[in-house]
Amino acid sequence: MDDAAVLKRQGYIMGINLGEGSYAKVKSAYSERLKFNVAVKIIDRKKAPTDFLEKFLPREIEILAMLNHRSIIKTYEIFETSEGKVYIIMELGVQGDLLEFIKTRGALHEDDARKKFHQLSSAIKYCHDLDIVHRDLKCENILLDKDFNLKLSDFSFSKRCLRDDSGRLTLSKTFCGSAAYAAPEVLQGIPYQPKVYDIWSLGVILYIMVCGSMPYDDSDIKKMLRIQKEHRVNFPRSKRLTGECKDLIYRMLQPDVNRRLHIDEILSHCWVQPKARGQPSEAINKEGETSRGPEPSWTPETPDKKSASKLEPREEAQPETQSEPKPNEEEMWQVPVSRQLDTTGLDGELPGRETEEEALPQPSETHT
Question: Which segment of the chain is annotated as a signal peptide (predicted)?
Fold first, then answer.
């Protein structure tokens, strides 16, 4: 029996193809019971790898059944046929994903970004409070409903965190995600704290929201990792971001996992809290911590000749004297997000693990 016939028996009229991988695909469908369109993720067990079937798929199904949050894509039903196909019926993100939204409309104004980022952060807090981690946060996995509210989706690499006898969360050794959103510890193949990994990815997402470009160039992973470990975050001069916004991004993109913000600290940050908007900015000191004081200035980093053709001029997040851009400098280097990052979001394939810095994951993605 084909997919359309299976869905018809369950009360769904199959629509168009939304995405397809080697052993999974997503279709739209109309639910005769719900009276609106849904998304249907169809997984073929006969084509899927053993590791996915034994580990990742059971985790995803268990977690989807647990989640109930206004900023997380709803799961309406999960069923399986005797032929080995799994059907996951989900809420449809009718306005597409966040990456396409930004590619089409450009960087978000801070007020719009604040609203959407608060929705996303609330969803992550909900998950983290349940000891659930996503581990593949990226713009492609954030969908928009009819009112352009954010909805977190794709829990293919999610898991429930384990705790040791003392109640502390254990480290994770499975490395998931796309390189451009991956934290330095993951790129290096170091056992990591999965909740802290999610926070780094959140920082990358907020940067993309307000800048319309990537914070790091992932075409050279070793160079990107070196810049990340130096805690260098450069912002496009043309965006005129507030000090509070830069501060929040800078503290989420903290390479030291013991100093990276936690989700509660993000939600209580002065930029996220509209009522605190009149308060003094938190200046970033050389150690990457913050202290109350006047808004810091930001010194631009001179782009190297190799990258000048595709990266915006950036200003490095350090409290030094601001220098004025040269005429037409911004126009010369300004490029919005235009390339969709490679992903196996439908497949969840996991290539072999690389643990040495000299053998880092390839630029497109880091699934291990």
Answer: none
